[in-house]
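Extended Data, panel c. Modelled sequence:
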Amino acid sequence: MTYKNNSRKADTYTIKEAIEALLEGYKLQNKLDKTDMVASWAKVMGQPIAEQTSQVYAKGNTLFVKVNSAPLKQELLMNKNKILYILNHKFQYQVIHEIIFL
């Protein structure tokens, strides 16, 4: 009985490796991470804060968050550095440099 050699050839890639190379080649990883950050705002910040947020979007290296409650906006402003850390820590590099609460 013979067994096939399951090792990959040097010129073959997994789908994950191919997608990562594509994202790196076209410089899309950062844009994808910003989109993921906006989409995960509610999960990262929690449902009570997400319910008081009407709009979250990224432009350049800045995340814009429209908050419906003035007291909550003040609280978020006071904790801006901590929020930046939490959001960027999820991606293990600095995706955004600034948050502006509207």
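The CA atoms of residues 69 and 75 lie 10 Å apart. This feature is highlighted in the accompanying rendering.
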